[in-house]
């Protein structure tokens, strides 16, 4: 879980960013600062764990992704997870869909937090679009996820550079290998799939909304129930 002092700093930055009297340039700067703070927190937590006398092991969590557009929503889970070295595995089946997340505890907490917030933002933005239809909305969610994933990856690279550059990257690579080993143990015959879209207008609209998304929401800002339900343990039948 994010430390209280980090959450307090994030909340203060977001209060500035969201206040109606804040000039646009200052609001954008505050929002970006909050995003960088979340990314730096995740990197710092990973480094502390890497040098601890007794290293922790990756954990396994289940996530239920609800209808509608559950398959498209899994791309958002994957985009957020990838930025924090968490592996997201989708299980075939009818909606709602089961996903398995494998990663270190602190990273899983950040993924849970950001996915919940971003899904609410994506759903709100999608409903404001003038275009309707399943194809458009599915593509919108995929485009939103792609843009958010790019932004999170950029914030991660910046945080790594500020926390030691090459040495930090090597420490994170070792943790990523531990996660990959845990994935191979759980899913020895895992296959990779790629999402496709039929409505490029929806894809572009989703990317535009993803460029404006808040990537640093605190738990106090996630007021609505999550569309994905996170729980511990391993999937039944695995």
The poorly predicted ranges are: 219-227, 234-238
Terminal Cα span: 27 Å
Radius of gyration: 18 Å
Fraction in beta strands: 5-15%
What is the strand tally? Answer: 4
Q: Strand pairing plus helix content: what structural class?
A: alpha+beta
> Strands of the biggest beta sheet: in what spatial order?
2-3-1-4
The SSE order reads HHEHEEHHHHE
Summed over residues and divided by their number, the pLDDT gives a mean of: 82
Globally, the shape reads: globular
- What's the helical proportion of residues? 55-70%
Number of helices: 7
Characteristic terms for this protein:
alpha+beta, 7 helices, 59% helix, 4 strands, 238 residues, single chain, disordered C terminus
Description of the structure:
It contains seven helices and four strands; from the N terminus they run ααβαββααααβ. With 238 residues, it is of the alpha+beta class. α1 runs antiparallel to α2 (24-50). The radius of gyration is 18 Å and the shape is globular. Residues 219-227 and 234-238 have low confidence and may be disordered.
């Amino acid at each position: 879980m994010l430390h209280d002092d980090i959450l307090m700093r994030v909340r203060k930055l977001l209060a500035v960013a969201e206040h109606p009297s804040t000039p646009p340039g200052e609001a954008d700067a505050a929002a970006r600062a909050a995003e960088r703070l979340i990314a730096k927190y995740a990197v710092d937590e990973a480094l502390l764990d890497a040098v601890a006398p007794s290293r922790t092991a990756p954990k396994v969590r289940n996530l239920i992704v609800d209808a509608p557009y559950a398959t498209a929503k899994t791309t958002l889970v994957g985009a957020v997870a990838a930025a924090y070295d968490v592996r997201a595995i989708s299980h075939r089946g009818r909606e709602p869909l089961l996903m398995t997340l494998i990663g270190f505890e602190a990273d899983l907490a950040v993924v849970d937090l950001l996915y919940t917030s971003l899904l609410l933002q994506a759903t709100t933005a999608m409903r404001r679009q003038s275009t309707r239809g399943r194809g458009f909305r599915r593509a919108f969610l995929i485009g939103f996820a792609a843009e958010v994933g790019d932004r999170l990856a950029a914030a991660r690279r910046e945080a790594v550079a500020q926390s030691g550059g090459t040495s930090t990257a090597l420490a994170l690579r070792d943790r990523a290998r531990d996660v990959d080993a845990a994935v191979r143990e759980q899913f020895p015959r895992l296959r990779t799939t790629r999402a496709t879209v039929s409505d490029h207008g929806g894809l572009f609209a989703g990317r535009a909304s993803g460029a404006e998304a808040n990537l640093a929401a605190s738990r106090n800002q996630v007021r609505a129930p999550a569309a994905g339900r996170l729980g511990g343990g391993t999937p039944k039948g695995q």
